[in-house]
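idk why but the lab printer keeps eating my pages so im just putting this in chat instead. protein + protoporphyrin IX containing FE:
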Amino acid sequence: MKIDNQGYGQLAKVFHWASAFFIIPAMAIGIWWIWVDLDTDSGWEQFEQLIGWHANFGLTVIILMLPRLVWRALNSATASSENTAHLKKVAFAAHFSLYALALITPISGWLGSALDGVAFSYFSIVTIPPVFGTHQDLAAVMTSVHIYSSYALIFLFALHFTAVLYHQFWLKDRILRRMT
Ligand code: HEM
Ligand code: HEM
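predcted complex ->
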């Protein structure tokens, strides 16, 4: 993954935008659910209507993030910019955490359901069975991990987006060109 002043390599860009394309709607549906009371009939109905899409988007994120992480690990490079050494460390930590959470969140979401015995039909193409059997205690733990990691992911994404806007429009260093 080439990273220099000209920007990121083609593959890095494809991985970045493809993951964002699926993470953002998965997040949007999840954020919507935060305000929905799942203990009511209408709340449950809204959950059931969207869980298929939420899971499809989220499972696609896992498929994209695994090769993306392998690629990133093999092609590690430091983003070179006008930032101070301190700011570079902050950006690295934020990017590293985004990677970790973009994997932990969908995997724990899937495990939380799978360990509860739920099978998913991935875009009606293939059925993903609950391969690990039913373990309700572990399922509850995974669901909690999913909920808290998704909150952390939402927070970091907001920070990431704000940082990009700050660079683009305040510092005017045309950061978006490095990723487009
Ligand atoms: C990057 C991908 C994902 C993001 C950002 C995400 C985010 C969220 C958020 C914000 C919530 C609401 C938390 C709350 O109720 O307070 C949620 C709930 C849920 N998600 Fe995900 N999710 C992702 C992937 C997945 C996947 C792949 C699955 C399953 C295959 C899944 C299954 C669920 C389920 C079952 C709930 C309801 C949990 C409950 O309240 O009992 N999620 N997700
Ligand atoms: C509309 C939404 C988004 C915009 C405008 C955006 C923009 C950017 C830009 C301009 C960079 C390059 C920063 C630099 O030059 O140092 C970048 C890097 C990065 N972004 Fe985003 N991004 C978005 C969504 C996301 C999402 C949802 C994630 C979640 C995983 C994410 C994760 C990353 C990571 C990990 C990097 C570091 C580069 C890499 O190793 O691939 N971005 N983003």
